[in-house]
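Researcher: Let's continue the batch. This sequence belongs to Ribulose-phosphate 3-epimerase, and it's 216 residues. Same format as the previous ones, please.
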Amino acid sequence: MKHLIAPSLLSADFMHLQEEVEMINNSDADWLHLDIMDGVFVPNISFGFPVLEALKPICKKPMDVHLMIVEPQKFVREIAAIGAYMMNVHYEASTHLHRTVAAIKETGMKAAVTLNPHTPVCLLEDIIQDVDMVLLMSVNPGFGGQRFIEHTVEKTVRLKEMITRKGLNTLIEIDGGVNMETGKRLLDAGADVLVAGSFVFKSPDPLQTIRDLKEL
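Model: Same format as before. Here are the structure tokens for Ribulose-phosphate 3-epimerase:
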């Protein structure tokens, strides 16, 4: 499978949100990544359901919704209602992760589990077979534009080894500090999906930047 590119709306110009989404619609991007933050699980607040509802009729790309919040299981139906393709919940925020994953899949959405930089991939041994994707944070969650954590490359290799050993097709997504150089190394390590925020939206030509990432 050719790798996927999921630009992160967190880095978009919110004064011109419709134009930014239309740019993504017309790009080579595969998904649109949406970071929902509550100011509790992470030290920042982003946007919530009113913005997601506004995106629903104009976004033509599958929505990859990443909940950086406490008790994400409370909002499974709301995320499904806005037409999300993938719902990401954090391992660290999900006391009953298996139950939450099952609830996500019951709605027809794909289920993903996210790991913070300090959380080892070995903790996924008993859930990896139930999820469609694992998102590895390559920065500390909460803010865009951070420096890439180098250890993520080795972590990606170990996660890929686990997936291969179990004979699974689970996708590996990486979020944080992705550019042409880190993106190439992550893909070589086994990543399937690259999330890019500032690198795309702050570039002089976002359409070309997405195309370049897609061609890595």
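Researcher: Any comment?
Model: The mean pLDDT is 96.
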